[in-house]
Amino acid sequence: MFKIQIRSPGGLDNKSNTTFDASWKILKDAIKLIFDGRVSELSFQTLFHAVYCITLRRQGEKLYEELHHTIERRLQDITRTHLHSESESYLRDILSIWYNHCESLRLISNVTMYLDKVYCKENRKPPIYHMGLDLFRDIILKSSKDQLQDLMIQNINAARSKASQVDFDSLRSLVEMMETITDEDSTYYATEFEPFLLHETQEYYRSHAKYYSGDLTAYPQEVESLLCGERRLDAKFLNSDVSIKIAKVVEEIMISENIHIVAMEVVPEILRTEQYSSLRLLFGQCQIQNDRKKLWKQCSQYIVGEGLAIAEDLNLKKKTQVAVKWMQEMIALKEKYEVVFKSQEDDDLNGLQAVNEALSVCFNQNSRKTAENLAIYLDSMLRAPSTSEESFKKHIDDCIAVFKLLKDKDFFEKLYQQQMSKRLLQQRSSLKFEKMFVNRMREEVGAVFAQKPDGMFRDIALSQTNNTRFHQAYHVPVEYEMNVLTPTCWPFQQMSNEEDVVLPSALEALKLDFENHYMKTYSGRVLKWAYHLGSMDIGIQFSKSYHIITMPVFAAIILMLFEDYVELTAQEIGDLTHIEEKELIRNLLTIAVAPKTRLLKKQPMNKKILPSDKFRLNYSFSAPSTKVKVLAVLSKQDSDSQGVMRTNNTLHDVAMERQGCTEAAVVRLMKGASKMYCDMLFEETRKILCHRFDVTPDLFQASLERLVEREYLQRDSEESSFYHYLP
Amino acid sequence: MSDIVLVSKNDAEFTISLEAASISPVLKNMLSSAFMEGHQRRVELKEIDPHVLEKVADYLEYRYKYIDATEDEDLPEFEVPTEMSLELLLVADYLNI
Fold it and tell me: Residue ranges of the Cullin family profile domain (chain A) (predicted)?
């Protein structure tokens, strides 16, 4: 066998007879030289070997403690001798102590590497270098803490107010020092200085905000320039993540802490003076969601103020003009702020929402009035003879936007239908545009809206075909157009006794012909004539000129009597035509009293119609154009009372409809749930109907009462606010 | 590249490059710091036998030569005489190689 001899090493600590004290003395003297900067006189190897020997002899702990003790004493001495609180260069003094200490520590820890490796690791002690840093923290920094921090913040605040030149290099070095030194699990900087710095920053800006005396609208600029200055300043001595924290503090103090002033005073002022770039800045600075909400709310309230200030211009003569002007101004307001808010930093929705909320408040201040104005506005748009498709589309969008914000949507619908029916029958609007609007509404609010308008369109279209056929089938002496209307689609009340009205023979024949013709196609249907909706053109040769006169059917009937008679009293006219008295008087006023259309001479010449008044044809009538349109006049009080009556009728209709809708909604809900609490039921009903109108508690209660009465629902015997559905 | 001198027991001298010596953190600190060795460029390791220190010097040069080698590369073995292994271990610990 081949035997390998392994030489047993004699060990490297061949001076094993040296004692700890002897080795320590070498080290201690060396450390003193290191502290004094005379390191080049020392042999690394000698010192390293000494540490090595001590550590190997298991005297590491003792050595560690001695080192600790020596460094500690050294720092205490320095505090006494080198650190004077009244020194003008206090910050730099600390820095220079720090640098010296670091350098010495580095050298010592190089020499004690073996101790670090063998002793410290095993015994979980911090390596010598860290131990030295900790001592620096405990001795130098703890004793100088207040003064150091105060001096630093003084410097920083001086830099903030640009009061004096500041030594940023020292500040930066100090921050680096504090970041190097550990404290607990973090750095000294993080546990001690940063909280202090942030707190002082708060204080600084808090007082800055408090004593702000500039223009309100300039406040966002001021904040921006503060932020900018702070960023520049922080970049000189702080890390970027701290800069971000500080910027946050500044925003928090300048904006969030003062959000009430900012929102209540700055925002309205900015809007009033239209300094929208400031608004943009402000939103950029306002990071907290809740604060932004407050800002938007203020914006919204400001618009409400502006919106409510837009009054109806009652100087204008016609109701239409008033309504149109008001709507135009409101829409202009809406567009103005939509543009302004769209350019804000925030996502668009918040801005648009603010505008919508504001306008919703304005519109619903008097929802019915708005509904009426909207209807009139739309009516005048549709009646406007030469609107381009492009601009009409824009109007539709405006109207729909307003409509969506409206609470009394059903009220608008009623008015819209009334006006639409008139436009259609009088052919005052382009069918294309009418349909365009209805289609857009169908898209936006659903098919329910389009139901009746579609019915009207259908009737009009069918009637046109019918008219053509009628003209082909019969000899028709005059131009003649009939519209057959489905009563459920059209918002008219049937006049009670139009059946009895006696037509001139030519017309009567025509009427019978048409009835015959119609019945051939649609047997089983009943035709009822609504003369009051129609009009007639009659050509008359007066003494001076020939005129084609367009007038209501009743007026025409009266006028045609004078083909056979020279003179008639009002009483006689009534007897001959069977026109209802009110209607008769109205039409006589129209053609005998109204100054521009005096087709009949009245005896005596006054403004009242009595049964005994005599009428004859006025041959001296003349007008500037060949075509004359006779507008049915209404005497002043008559027109007022009629207007009120019409509105009341509309209101009544709307109320009836609402009642029906509410009941239907309640029944539908209860059918599903079978039992429910009153409050809950109310909320649900409201939700279902909110796209048409706002369910009031009164309306809801009344509906409930009626349903209980009709035994759809039953009140719980014990709890009166609990309802059961009766199947 | 500058060379430095390692001195063993009996004053045998071994010259290696500074870069190779710097493989050992201890030698590196010794030579780069402000201590005497730094400017003398001479390290006295008089506790170490010449033949052991020679092997150590060889090893440092060997390590330095292949310092950039990846694991897959075919490296020549570094021969360590078995009888010297304990002594080498001791020095390796001392120099923290």
Answer: 369-592
